What does this fold into?
Amino acid sequence: MADYQTTLAEVFEVHRSRLRRIAYRMLGSTMDADDAVQEAWLHLSRSDSEAVENIGAWLTTVVSRICLDMLRSRGRNLGEPWSEDSPNHPLQTEGLQDPEDEALLAESVGTALMVVLDRLTPGERVSFVLHDLFGVSFPEIARLLQRSEGATRQLASRARRTVRGAVSEDPIDQVRQWDLVAAFLSASRAGNFRALLMLLDPEVVLRADAQAVQMGAAGLVSGAPEVAQTFLGRARGAAMAVIDGFAGAVWAPQGTPLVVFIFSMAQEKVSAIDVIADRDHVQRLHVRIGTV
It folds into this structure.
């Protein structure tokens, strides 16, 4: 029995890296991803694995189901005013073409993808990550989501439109980005509520990842007055930075970025601020402090 468990553990280790990548893309948190992968191992160790024909595919399904449950347990998705599981969820009918030519779209939009994924419903996120990033077929995803293949394709299509829209919405030049972030930080430090309001889109959203929340950040704040109040008199330790080519801010004691503030902009106003403290995520960002 011990030898069998050892062999099973070795088999699992072959797939661990891929499972962790899948879980991280779905959950946006290394801690949650590690928890999901560990739970997948427990499922495997307690199962009749000898009856499983394709361990890799089986583990992908298991870790995806665990991630889906974790996403749903977080409650209402940040990017939608209603739950994806609601019977009134309006599955759209456009975009039903075979999206194979859209495969790996996410890889082309860079690190900002992790921010955009937080706007998707659980079903959209699972469909998009599994199909567009990891090549899982729609019939397999449909079985996982307990939906029809057509509905699953719609979820991925709608997610893809969200990603495309987020990376192309109203781009402004880097100098204007820099000026806008600099004005925001200045107003924040000065406690100038009115100036902050003028810089924020009325529907602006402030989002923080799990690690930032543990450090004291609010998980989700919506609306210009609420976001302005959150930053009032703060940001004293933040420094201007260029993050993956876009103007932003960082908290970088002793020159090492620990918390990154990613600003989304539309119509020359700040439309979203994402606070990222997850160490792995921050380390993957290309950060130049104090330059434009």
The chain has two domains: 2-168, 174-289. The beta strands are 200-208, 220-222, 238-243, 246-251, 259-266, 269-276, 287-289. The first helix runs from residue 2 to 27. The radius of gyration is 21 Å.
